[in-house]
# Entry
Amino acid sequence: MTEFGQHDRSLEELFADAALPAIDDAGVGVSEIDAFYFGNAMGGMTENETHLAPALATHLGMQGIPCQRFEDACATSSNAFKHAVEAVEAGRHDIVLVGGVERCTPETGLDTGVMTRVFASASHGQYEQPTGLTFPGVFALLTKRHMHEYGTTEAQLAEIAVKNHSHGQYNPHAHFGRDATVEDVLESPIVADPFHLMDCCPFSDGASAVVVAAPDRAESFSSTPVDVTGIGHRTDAVPLADKADLTETRAARQASTRAYKQANITADAVDFAEVHDCFTGAEVLATEALGLLKDGKGGPAAAAGRTRVDGEIPVNPSGGLKAKGHPIGATGTAQIVELTTQLRGDAGKRQIGDASTALAHNLGGDAATTIVTVMEAHA
Amino acid sequence: MSEPTDADKGPGHVKYEDWREHLETGTLLGVQCQSCGAVSATPKRACSGCGSREMAAIELPERGTVYSETTINVPPEDFDGTYQVGVVGLGETRLLARLRGAVDIGETVMFTGTIVEGDGPGPVFESAE
Ligand SMILES: [Zn+2]
# Structure
């Protein structure tokens, strides 16, 4: 993957900087790749660029193979990954390139007001957008309800931002990373209460890519493969007022149940997780929905350090969306990159020792799309 | 406050245009499944509970309870200032709305009109306490 941050190059050039290292890491020739599963959420709105998959394939010397582009808001490239894994599992393809790219910073020429409107396009056009609902607002609604039901506090949310910033400083690809304090978070301006600016992930540019291969082909690769052992993908109602419950993130519960079943594990077996912390409250909801923590315990557990990289259930060792950054269409496969790096034991200072089972949780929109992936170190 | 018209009750189904016209004239139009009774605060072509396509217009209550709320300080383009939005419980369904009066979760609110800043109107609720 590329560093997440601000990039002034075109989508195809940015994507190439993630894709070619992934192809080289696998040690495969471009001519051996027999399909391309690609994610980009907003290029049509932000850069006036659509139909990107064949253009990017051409740029990488892969023209001619089947290419497809996915758009499921922030879960865009996880959905590309899911389809790639299922196609390989079904025997339809042997070696597939999967990845995503997005530019969300002012490098696109769009300011915060315009980008806030672009992000709000993932909420319902007739029944949500006219109220002026924003994406921080969506997750604020979910989180305020959680605070009401369980007593989760702003200080507990801030602890998650502090943790993920701390983790991010050990990730060379992260947009941000430093030692911050709870006071830093609580003193930053309010975006949508309870979220301060430092509760929110940044607008980032970046790209990520992975190579998915059939087991017999992966054995011949130059690098150590890791196994994808479960993928669950479920959706919930849109508009969000139609959701039966605002704190359960039902799609995450159903998707993780499915992923755990496929992998033949329970949540207890997960050594660490990369979860979709677009806002600190989203990490609370995710850790509970995935069964890593009991309902209502997401905030207190984070405040107690249980989800730190050296805690009992590390969450977002990469820094998460909060610190690593969130180039929408690149986020899903960037989580897969972190799982792969950790399961290979290559994560340096943020390495979780002996990690053999890992989980990625990527959601789209108001959590209406959720994809949960379980990966394990190759036996 | 007008009753839903015969045209709403169908043979035709309830459309966004019907919902919008009612909102603009001061009524909250929902739909109710004629098979299982499930209610939605916004038009649906089929019931999320049972899949039935017999979704008839109903008038929703104008008094509700705040289920969740937030105050937005960084608005999208076309919107101004700081404002409160929330999910309002209306009987057995819920609706996203603009809120006025710094209301809290659990507070009773009344439907009082619409705001038009983006594309189309949005419902407005105010504290009834
Ligand atoms: Zn029904």
Summary: Residues 6-59 of chain B form one domain. Chain B is about 10% helix and 40% strand.
